[in-house]
Known about the structure:
Blueprint: E1 7-10, H1 22-30, E2 33-36, H2 39-48, E3 55-57, H3 63-75, E4 80-83, H4 95-104, E5 109-112, H5 117-125, E6 132-137, H6 144-152, E7 157-162, H7 167-177, E8 182-187, E9 195-200, H8 201-210, E10 217-221
Parallel strand pairs: 1-4, 1-5, 2-3, 2-4, 6-7
Antiparallel strand pairs: 7-10, 8-9, 8-10
Amino acid sequence: MATNGVLFIVSTPIGNLEDMTLRGIRILNESTLIAAEDTRHTKKLLVHYSIKTPTISYFEHNRFTRIPQIINHLISGKNVAVVTDAGTPGISDPAYKLIRATIEKKIKVEAIPGASASITALSASGLPTDRFLFEGFLPHKKGRRKKLERIASIEATTILYESPMRLIRTLNDILNYVGDRPAVIGRELTKIHEEYQRGKVSDLLSYFKKNTPRGEFVIMLGKDNPNVYF
């Protein structure tokens, strides 16, 4: 009886290509197929490390056809590596649906740890790390206020992702529904223009109203403690 392959969850750099792990490079080389969120983006990483493994796209809108294809590849005994554009697959990313389908088929899944924007930002934030909540991206419309009101009741550092187009709106909503808490915003992490802004939510809102948001953002909100400010 043929042995199934392994689905490897390979973390990739969030900006600086030097953050790729040696194990991750080896797994990408040894796999027979790489399922990538955007094959054009992933190609830059593969070229940098001289990895010649074939790639196919796997993202939210093609998952219904791609998941069966990848599962069949695994059942045939071949290993597959799944990567996202940046960071750890499955974190605010549809790779978890592929991972779940693989597990349901009783096929081995193995994670190759590496970069994650949320943990990278949290580690440098200066906010309490004994307890934290990762919320990813807020809903654009339905459920947005409800989620923010729930965050307001949680005694933990909260981590959010946001795009430059919606940063000011999100900071306004946080101020209105969560409060003027201590906060840190990380921008363009591990890249040339990496930046951290620290202060109360109102301070950060004022800053980004004067300085046009550019790049990708990680927002971290501290606990509701008036004595913890930068």
